[in-house]
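Margin note from the TA: students keep mixing up input and output lines. Inputs are the sequences; the output is the structure of the whole complex. Example:
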Amino acid sequence: MLAKLLNNKDTMLVIVFSLVVLAAPLLLAPLGAGYPDLMQRFAIFGIFAIGFNILFGLTGYLSFGHAAFLGVGSYSAVWMFKLLSVNIVPAILLSVLISGLFALVIGYVSLKRSGIYFSILTLAFAQMSFNLAYSVLTPITNGETGLQLALDDPRVLDGASTEGVLPSPQLFGLEMNDTAQVPFLGMELQFNVGFYICALILIAAFFISLRIFRSSFGMMLRAVKSNQTRLNYTGINTKPYTLAAFVISGMYAGLAGGLMASMDPLAGAERMQWTASGEVVLMTIMGGAGSLLGPVLGAAIIKYFENIFSRINDNVIEAWFTFLPDWLGDILVTLISPFVGKGWHLSLGLIFMLVVIFLPGGLVEGAQRVSRWTVRSVKRLQHSEPGSSKSLEPGETH
Amino acid sequence: MADFKTNRRSFIKGSGAVGAGLAAPTIFTKAHAFTNEPGPGSVVLGFNVPQSGPYADEGADELRAYELAVKHLNGGGDGGMLNTFSSKALDGTGILGRKVDYVTGDTQTKSDAARASARAMIEKDGAIMITGGSSSGVAIAVQSLCQDAGVIFMAGLTHSNDTTGKDKKANGFRHFFNAYMSGAALAPVLAERYGTDRKAYHLTADYTWGWTQEESIMAATEEKGWETVNAVRTPLAETDFSSYIAPVLNSDADVLVLNHYGANMVNSLTNAVQFGLREKMVNGKNFEIVVPLYSRLMARGAGQNVKGIFGSTNWHWSLQDQASQTFVSSFGREYGQPPSQAAHTCYVQTLLYADAVQRAGSFNPCAVAEALEDFEFDGLGNGKTLYRGADHQCFKDVLVVRGKENPESEFDLLEVVQVTPMEQVMYEPDHPMFAGGSLGQCNPGA
């Protein structure tokens, strides 16, 4: 069935993507990132960035307010946990629905303009939502502390829980924070229920985005990006298309927000702040806007920096250089320490600049260049060996 | 032949790994008795402090204190307050014979970031206890995370009533005093100095700490006859308070209460002084400013502006008791400056945790909690102190301080006006300002 929906290349892409995502605990453990919290974040922000890319990558409309949808999704999910049940299904459904409605309203207004005016409008709406959540709607959002579960929440669908113990979010009995720890080659692999739920949803989200990219709807969105005026002159009303893209990407963000709350049942206002909206823009551009894999890659890199680099303090760096003489170690520590620990923003900024300047297509473009270069050099090598090159001549292989 | 050997060896290794993989499902029923049970060699503590944002100064000082505490626990340095502490369970050989290691993280003064950092410490580094926080919102968020994860949370600088009030948790403990205590200690002094017919205007940081402090100070001063003219909330991330100060000039208030902390207070006080509030006369009385929660780091940030301004603190380095003096000299030798109250409470919390583990003979959070509950101690700088079991709040004397008129050094900025005895700041666990929550049951995780 999959093969019918996709051409061969896409089937391979989905399969490889799924395998890599599902094997994440194994692949990330050597990088020090194989613990549940960070892996969940990779998947969740991957979904967020994939959704953002449907709007920005395809239509070129740069929204600076997507974090608002993420926040709305989180709040909806936590309220579901409080009122209805700690099962994540109703929470996630409601978060997608509410953020979709929210996106419809904001999109309807913001899409009356394009270009920078559109960006500013979305930014204004998001900042408005942030301030509402932070200080006006505190009975709903609990302000800066964030909305949390409490022992005396009604939870009408759940049976009475153990006295004095807060239930944790679960999927029909599977608790999100359940982790199996498996020793493997000296590493401790952590297979976490929550991560695998995020991972399966990420794969589904990736598949849907792929279908959108390949559909005629996706083609129309690309047309909007390349020349909206021309489309309008030919008598096509582009508004329904862009609005649909906006709502879809808003729902993706809401899904990410709902998942975030499911993994860690707290919704704070700061995840709606403009910096959070900017972050998803960075993720998408860094990975490669308009490419399928780029946003996921960008999300993973930024989250890796935020969580791993920011935790390297002077003691850790000193431990790296203990084999060196003291004076040399000290110099190296002084040189490196501004770029790690609390200076992680600095190194991220540098990398971002390098990517934007030298690889405008993002890291995906970088990967493509590298693979093209390898293929070319392999071919050149084979050419230099007489008698072995003939069958690999381009054109003949097809 | 040699090839065969290596192959066989790697085959055995590989089959071991496969076996472990097959055994995975049974690992869901965890072998450990509680979350992150430490091995025989060392134990990891997680220090989660703000390294950026409005409380970064406090965070940096807290980290210094934690590092010093670890050094003393492991038998390094001069032992600090281990020598003056009334409990003698700790002997400088780590905790229960295990060397103390630590990991640090940045809370960014944001609940989300703080929880992410704490989760990383628990899941990645195997931290058995999380401590820190310089914002009550963050402390409350991290406290509930630790409750869910099954580790102990030793709150750092958090002053909101809610931390041990409506948001209290069985796995969370607070040594620092709270907003109610500030109000109870400060109001009598204010009434005595400024009279009982004052009109107060509150500027309040808009989050749990600000709200409860505003409520506490209002209640305590109104009981003395003061009137509250207005209370305005300001965002935590605000850096310029001019637009909030201007309306104060046009009200008929004669006291401005700044429910701000850290960089917020430095900025709002500086703005207030720039607007000439301190020279102003209203209703025939000199206009006064009050900063209910004070710290030396803030006083240094605000410079000349703090002179003569009243507030309260948990501890101050100029205290003359032996424990405080020992701590100040030990901290000073290490870092060349006296410790702040944030540093003091964090150092003490680390020691209290280590001591509780040692007395309980186990790292199990439930055993540790039991050892801390209703624990009475002395010799940690605040005199006789009680860790009340009903809400996990410490009760001790509270200091009322004032910005010094003629400071002798850059650290000598506050003078202690009065030491308010513990009895005066005591309250029942079900006091209305603290009601609405429940500790729940201690959670050992696993």
